[in-house]
Amino acid sequence: MTSGKLAILVGGGPAPGINSVISAATIKAINEGFDVVGIQDGFKWLVRRDTSYARPLGIDDVSRIHLRGGSVLGTARENPTKSEESMKAVVETLTTLGVTHLVTIGGDDTALSSSTVASRSNIHTVHVPKTIDNDLPLPAHIPTFGFQTARHVGVELVQNLMQDARSTHRWYIVVAMGRQAGHLALGIGKAAGASLTLIREEFEHETVPFAHICDIIEGAIIKRRAMKKNYGVAVLAEGLIEKLDPNELKELQDVELDEHGHIRFAEVDLARKVKVELQGRLRKISIPISISNKNIGYELRCTDPIPFDMAYCRELGNSAVRFLIDGGSGAMVSIQNGRLVPLLFEDIRDQDTGRTRVRNVDITSESYRVARDYMLRLDYNDFTDVNVVEKLAQAANLTVDQLKERFNK
User: Fold this and answer.
1) How far is CA 349 from CA 90, 154, 334, 357, in A?
2) Model confidence, pTM
3) Per-residue model confidence (pLDDT) at position 254
4) Which residues pair with 294 in a beta bridge?
5) What's the CA gap between 50 and 115, in Å, rounded?
6) Strand partners, 9
């Protein structure tokens, strides 16, 4: 039986299944002879050399928490890697607590902090990947924990909005979380059967004109009108914000940044900006329309996990401790084909940036092709049939030539 003290902490934003990982890791570690402590609020208090936020965890403390969302240990975006002093404080505080092994639960930023602890101390670390964005560099068929639950709840929300849109004859512009990858927006839009979904990966250029995004949605609205349907739902990935030209959105420079230097996307109301732009455009061509905007993300992060994530996260928590027991350190744990597969930090890090690589949506995949096939967008084929073009022009209150000049690009 192993001896030592294992600490568990959570960094970054919440995701369904965190408590399942904490529960499984704690029970497994105690059964293997470890003392276990939970570190409250990620690296926040460790950076401040405050040991009072570390508390012992027993089996009775965690035996049923896997059923609930949120994090019993809290979470924070404290970034100890931004200064030598902060990193030194973390290592020395963990050492003071007698910690020999560390389980971190989080996204790419927490993974970087975990790997740095391993490289600068004798503490064995393992990272459990967590993000509803599904953007960590796991094999294509392996989700990050929390993603499936977030998609499940997001689909329910969008389905409700679709019913409201149909009943009230309006359009909804919905923005779903996903900083650098559009997995969540695409997963929600595809499963719910939204009118269309836009993700950053489909745009190959470094920046995308805001007008172009609005063109695509406006085209979908017109196409729906030609089908005698004056309602719909468009789902946008929030990662589109970073694709926009800063010169078009000068107010972005005043948006608050988080501890890792990222724009707080929740501060930028992309859905509202699109709504206002579309209302102005459609008013000019005398199309009466009601458009509402909705951001979804925070509603998804602390919801109770669905059974998939409950079970998946118990596997991850157990596997993380087994990896440490076997002498492993400095890796991210994954379950592939039913087996524990550690991913070394150096193997998943971008050599140019030093950060964990991002897994983007593969727009050449069958999954994306199918999603795209069921979206409603103006495309080249719509302009090859005279009857279709005339219907579209009538729906847009434009002449055929005006329609072609406006949308056939």
Assistant:
1) 22, 30, 16, 5
2) 0.89
3) 46
4) 174
5) 21
6) 104
- Distance from first CA to last CA of the chain, Å, rounded? 68
Sheet of strand 171-176: strand arrangement: 196-198, 232-237, 171-176, 291-296
Place of tokens 């329309």: 289
Is residue 109 part of the annotated active site? The answer reads no
From the list 195, 253, 250, the residue with the least C-alpha distance to 374 is 195
Among candidate residues 155, 76, 147, 116, the one with its CA nearest the CA of residue 316: 147
- Read off the pLDDT of residues 79-135 as tens digits, 9 standing for 90 and up: 898 889 999 999 999 999 999 999 999 987 888 889 899 988 899 999 998 889 998
The answer to whether the CB of 128 falls within 8 A of the CB of 21 is yes
- Structure-token match 């050599």, residue found: 351
Domains of the chain, CATH where assigned? 4-145+305-347 (3.40.50.450), 150-301 (3.40.50.460), 378-409 (no CATH)
Residues in the chain: 409
Q: How far apart (Å, rounded) are the C-alpha atoms in residues 53 and 39?
A: 6
CA distances from 152 to 44, 94, 155, 159, 303 (A): 31, 37, 5, 11, 10
Active-site residue, from 41, 109, 133, 382: 133
Two tokens at 345? 């930090």
**Does 182 have pLDDT greater than 80?**
yes
Q: CA angle, 191 as apex, 187 and 302 as ends, to 5°?
A: 60
Q: What is the DSSP code string of 181-244?
A: --HHHHHHHHHHT-SEEE-GGG--SS-B-HHHHHHHHHHHHHHHHHTT---EEEEEEGGGGGGB
Helix axes of 400-407 and 386-396: crossing angle, nearest 10 degrees: 90
